[in-house]
Amino acid sequence: MTDVLGAPIKRVEDPRFITGNGNYLDDIKLPSMAHMAILRSPYAHANIRSVDTSRAKKMPGVIAVFVGADIPYNPLPMAWPAGGVAGIKNNVNTPRILATDSVKWTGEGVAGVVAETPEQAYDALEAIDVDYEPLAAVVEVEKAIEPGAPQLHENAPNNIVFEWSVGDKDGTAAAIDGAEVVVRQRIVNQRLIPNPMETRGDIGWYNPGTDEYTVWMSSQTPHIQRLLLAAFVTGIPEHKIRCISPDVGGAFGTKIFCYADMALCMFASKAIGGRPVKWVEGRRENYQSTIHGRDHVTWIEIAGKRDGEVTGLRVKTLANLGGRLSTIGPGIPTTLYGRVLSGCYKFPNVYAEVTGVYTNTTFVDAYRGAGRPEATYVVERAMDLFAAEIGMDRAAVRRKNFIPPDQFPYENPSGLGTASGGAKIYIDSGNYEPALNKAITTAGYMDLEAKKAEAKARGKLLGMGLSTYIEVCGVAPSKWIGAVGEGWGAAMWESANIRVHLTGKTVVTMGTQPQGQGHETTYAQVVSHELGIPMDDIVVQHSDTQGTPFGYGSYGSRTSSVGMTAAIKASAKIREKARKYAAHLLEASPDDVEVDGANYFIKGSPDKAKTLQEIAFALDLAFDAPEGMEPYLDETAYYDTPNCTWPFGTHIAVVEIDEETGKVDLVRYVAVDDVGKKINPLIVDGQLHGGIAQGVGQALWEGAVYDDNGQLLTGSMLDYALPRASYFPKIELDETVTPSPVNPIGVKGVGEAGAIASTAAVANAVVDALSPLGIRHLDMPYTAQTVWRAIQGAKGGQA
Amino acid sequence: MSEHISFVVNGTPRELDVEPRRLLVQAIREDLDLTGTHVGCDTSQCGACTVHVDGMAMKSCTMLAVQADGSEVTTIEGLAEGENLHPMQAAFWEKHGLQCGFCTPGMIMTAVDLLTATPIRRTPRSAMRSRATTAAARATRTSSPPSATPPRPSGPARRRPRSRRGSR
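Structure tokens for the assembled complex are given below, as produced in the milestone run.
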């Protein structure tokens, strides 16, 4: 049998998607199902004096109308405070299921209408009278912490959620004070709207007969949601809630979290006597009620010697977390940002201060990359600023500061060593220079000046940008990330169950949750490799808390390295039990039984082998199982990774800017990524393509814009500039392969790499193109207007 | 206040009583239970809801159901012939032209129309969030080798949509 591990196999889930037979949340129709619409605040900041629902209740088709005071549930949990610093305080305010006294952003839920049809529910929203007392709003972090700014929460003076720091403060200060060269720059990592093509939605169903709830949700984490809804929100016992994530139409982090609508659908279903209640988010609603990403203002100080050695990096960041906190909002700009700010470099001194800030905006949480794109943007911009200041080649500066390949495992200076739990983790492996060399050769970096001259003759400013990134994948060792009260406050292991049915198929279930990555294919490839059975005989099932072992879900590029290692462990248990039973069938000692793929035989007699499926048939029936052996080939394994995994690579973007109009064209994109062993190269390439497109989107087009009153001006796809296929050149992918030593197959993860690396590559390319004009930094997105203004400003014109 | 409409959907004559405000996509998804066509935005930007109306790609969220009265509509469910995938479906699968699959029906219907109307190498312009950006373009090219006959047109003789219809 051909080993399928590493093969570019067509995905087994695709036939249902290309024929219209996928089953997404809004495709589910249940008998007697009612529909819910949520009234959302038109004000960014207001007190609620009263809500009058009497007219709405009389509207055609309306079954029930709920306001905040009707809901006995707790506010949503916040599960990952800023941690790992002695005495740190998090001033926590989270959304209620429906707002009661006040609203803190445009789009916060105020009332819910349940009706026979969605149209009737939305019509009835118009008949709800809310008496608001509008308050002054603040949407920008720098303004929000100023004295006299509008205050959002009594327990958060100056709108500060936390003040967190990491690294060696005094050592870094000394390095900067005594440095030959210091470069300082304020940079903005603008707010993004994640835009999975499927918005969120839920169906809550209360079964009066069993007093149990089923919640269908478009979620990356059905097990976590069951836990949070039970233990923190509703008080309903966990065993009385079943969460099902059907086909998920993209997520990008937005569907990790516990949202108010999940609990509201549960509550509403019980309140109306057990009819299922469906709520599906519209796109404009999605822009207001599902989390946003990024939104940092950062001051960089990078210090070093004129020979290119960086001696210190100091960073201060204001992180906008929105009007109330999402599930892990504070964890993103702290652990997943501050602790990796030094990237792939051996800076001796790093210190970062991060302040989490409340503003009258939609909450901010993990969005593809989650902290690591922001960190990469900081350090990669800093490297270019430093190189420009000392007049040294950008690739040479990077080479000079790379962590050398003989230094792994490497404890970085920006605080990886300790996170919430105090346990240490290390950068497991790396060999950064070959990837850099490969990328600059492919992109023709050495001929850059000639390319610039050729472009200039055509009226174009050409620029090339490097991004030598690392990524933290495979989150995360529980002992590192999990200390209760200081950090994530939970574990992050994974699980898998494997059953070999007596009818011949092997069924794999797990706690991870696909949202487009192709888990049904890649898990089958791994298990096929481990058990030696064809992929056609392997069935991968997921997404239902009833029928899969508990798991923490899919995010942080963790499924391949953590989840699939659990499947490998479960496979090993299956093999061992099968070997023992084969010994019984073959009348031999277990020690004498050898395993080759799916064949189990006495040493030296492979012709008399029993196959795994023959063994399963006999053992599952167990007519003649030996004394003490349990029937059935059914094994579950739990796996807590000892370390994260650390992909790296070099991305190079080439842009051309029209000097007359400021329009930026991405003309080439070269990416050399080292993601370790690849389970399915086709899927790896797909993840890179999508991630790169998303990161380029931030650099060139995307950005959420609020006005000063907190109204979202980029309120739909008409206004929010998503990338389109035609904006991209062919993406040129290449690789180096440095297997991770952390897990048995050497995988690292790839879901976020493209988005982490590409934003900085494009930003550096645009600044490089503009550098002949004396421009050394420009904030994203690089729309024609922004770039044209910068060009005019540099030329001394009235921009 | 409902209106009666008759149209042919995936080759089968269908009759519906719909509210005048009902969108074609709602009629397809909610009244006919053809849930392969998805809604990705509220503003006719994303193209996930694309179907063919009288042989031409149409965003079914920008057209009222009553406007489809008398039309022939093909949805993603009507593209394959039994077990045989349409060449465009096969190409999307072959070239890994999809990830989560949510907008894929719209991309496939758009791409079929693109090559039916213009059998040259071009790129679908759906708003994209994933791999499908470049891969779908490749799949589109794959399904239409320059010398090959274009994929089968759906519906009868092609005619331009009436002006009251939604945006393409």
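Residues 559-585 of chain A form the longest helix (27 residues). Residues 493-639 of chain A form a domain with the Aldehyde Oxidoreductase; domain 4 fold (CATH 3.30.365.10). Further analysis is deferred to the final report.
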